[in-house]
Amino acid sequence: MTLSPGLPTPDGPGSVSQVPNLPTGFTDTFTSRYVDIGELHLHAVTGGEGPALLLLAGWPQTWYAWRLLMPALARDFQVVAVDPRGVGLSDKPRGGYDTGTLARDMVALMDALGHEHFAMVGHDIGMWTGYALAADHPTRLDRLAVAEAAIPGLSPSPPLFGSQQANDRLWHFAFNRHANLNEQLISGREHLFFGHQFATKSARPLPAYAVQHYIDTLATDPAALRGSFEFYRALDTTIAQNQDRKTRRLTLPVLAIGGAQNLGASVGETMTLAADDVDSLVLPECGHYPAEEAPGAMLAALTAFLAPYRNRWTASDVRR
């Protein structure tokens, strides 16, 4: 599994060169690349100096969700922000959307980039994958930060006839798992469906240009729209995997971040079901998208949490 010199440089919509409103100087540090992990090609945006840090966003976003944090993180870390399979400019196979496979994809990606050990930040479905990676590949991760998700098969399942508030927050789980009707119902109405998700789950509205970028990414590629649902269609497999994983507790340090106006302290409560060393942080006036709603607070939390990892690497200059 190696970087393939024959692969073209990503330069279409979704690449570093064609996304809107990046922070000043972003393209001086970060570049898009395709990485061959054997089974498929993943799109990663990389840059920076220091120990490796993997950033994995969730549904229905891409690597672009991390753009406001990446320049500061790149001063201390080799940052890898990736589109997982089915997302953005990465390949979109029909299968492999259970978290065991997604975690193996991430390990293969970091192998191909030359990173034997790394830290990881996962949001939403990226949190699902981060948990799977920590449980299935415990020697690879140094530290894990997660944000704004419950973990199917680990967290208690909400009742079918729950409160109206719970239904308004969770109804898309059942919808997204449907086997084949989703794309037909959403096609041509992507702004209505995905726009509703962003509007109702954020305490501070995301910039209109960012929401439009995410929606355009899904609306212009039928395979991306299908891929956005495949993570949920694979939940039976993921739940079975997590029921096995929870018998093996995590020992690495974990930071659990919740938005006060969405999941809040329940993110930390979820991780204590699986891990022994959990710090929980609730960000005030924040909803489901902390990297975009509260980038300063999230950056400060990650900087403090990752400092021991960075300092050990600086001292030894060998853990890359």
UniProtKB/TrEMBL annotation:
GO molecular function, one term: hydrolase activity
Protein name (Swiss-Prot/TrEMBL): Pimeloyl-ACP methyl ester carboxylesterase
Region (Disordered): 1-22
Record key words, sorted: Hydrolase
Domain of life from the UniProt record: Bacteria
SUPFAM superfamilies (UniProt xref): alpha/beta-Hydrolases
Domain AB hydrolase-1: 51-295
InterPro entries from the UniProt entry: AB_hydrolase_1, AB_hydrolase_fold, Epox_hydrolase-like
